[in-house]
Design brief:
alpha+beta, about 325 residues, 7 helices, two-stranded antiparallel ribbon, 2 domains, 6-stranded mixed sheet, disordered N terminus, Cathepsin B, Chain A
Length: about 325
């Protein structure tokens, strides 16, 4: 056990904090807890409304935060910064948010440069950014986002439509999904085709697993005729996005650090479901489900090519 003396100086610089002396096991002896780290930690807590009742737990989380700051310092891409996930270790982040249940199939072929920009967001065909919370339901948000946009593009809804992710979390387990422990967009599409999907107002999101509430599945109800799996090439994905937004699987292992810019710092081990919503300035535009305070107002720009494996497992609903 190592003794860490955290000097939180009184005054406006450190926002009136007092001296905190905590005995605990350090996350790492290589990352010092400086006054700069303490100040950034306080700013982080204020920005993201983080509260800790246990001082020992707060010190631990501050050390995790300090380690994440070191990752940002070593970044050379200009796309890393402080996000709401900075009090989580990489392992904790993955266990909560990177739960997509997809086999890492063959690598898609990058066979064409991106051209013909299209932005379904500015076209008014994409619904507002949502927040999955601490539930591994990215697959459900990718699914609803794709169906919402398909309905809007088809003239069957406006961009205020808000479909129920919770219905998918609670009710599609027999189709291979596992609620907050992960799932897959294609499985969710199959469920919707067979059962229809209601709205958020009828079946509100709780961010946790629950028993399927059949009484909440009532009109208005939305369905789909089927779905199309996009061929594993970037040219096929480019053709698909010209028609409508597309549900995609990505490697988001380092997205916890993303704050803006064109991102390419990733592998292709698919672990997260999101929505491809356009091609802008020759790069892919992607809608995430971690709230509007993350990334670029809830979006991320991915470098052209099969960045983060986004063309490896793409699909979209058909009317």
């Amino acid at each position: 056990m190592n003794k860490l003396i955290l000097l939180a100086l009184a005054g406006t610089v450190l926002l009136g904090a007092t001296l905190l002396l905590v005995n605990h096991k350090r996350v790492s002896d290589d990352v010092p807890i400086t006054e700069e780290v303490i100040l950034k930690w306080k700013q982080f807590k204020q920005t993201y409304n983080k509260k800790f009742s246990d001082p020992d737990q707060e010190v631990y989380r501050m050390e995790v935060f300090a380690q994440n700051l070191e990752v940002v310092k070593q970044d050379t891409t200009g796309t890393f910064g402080v996000t709401q996930f900075f009090d989580l270790t990489a392992q904790e982040f993955a266990s909560i948010y990177l739960t997509l249940q997809v086999e890492n199939a063959e690598e898609a072929v990058h066979d064409a440069e991106l051209n013909g920009d299209i932005n379904w967001v500015t076209a008014g065909k994409v619904t507002a950014v949502k927040n999955q919370g601490q539930c591994g339901s990215c697959w459900a948000f990718s699914t609803t986002g794709a169906l919402e946009s398909a309905l809007i593009v088809a003239g069957q809804a406006t961009n205020t439509i808000n479909l129920s992710e919770q219905q998918l979390v609670d009710c599609s387990t027999s189709y291979g999904n596992q609620g907050c422990n992960g799932g897959l967009m294609d499985n969710a599409f199959k469920y919707i085709k067979a059962n229809q999907l209601t709205t958020e107002s009828n079946y509100p999101y709780t961010g946790k697993d629950g028993k399927c509430n059949s009484a909440a599945i009532k009109a208005p109800l939305y369905s789909l005729k089927g779905f199309t799996d996009v061929a594993k090439t970037t040219s096929a994905l480019q053709a698909a996005i010209q028609k409508q937004p597309v549900a995609i699987a990505v490697d988001a292992s380092k997205w916890s650090y993303y704050t803006g810019g064109v991102f390419s710092n990733c592998a292709t081990q698919l672990n997260h479901g999101v929505l491809l919503v356009g091609i802008v300035n020759g790069n892919w535009l992607v809608k995430n489900s971690w709230g509007a305070s993350w990334g670029e107002n809830g979006y991320i720009t991915l470098k052209a090519g099969n960045t983060c494996g986004l063309a490896n497992a793409a699909s979209y609903p058909t009317e």
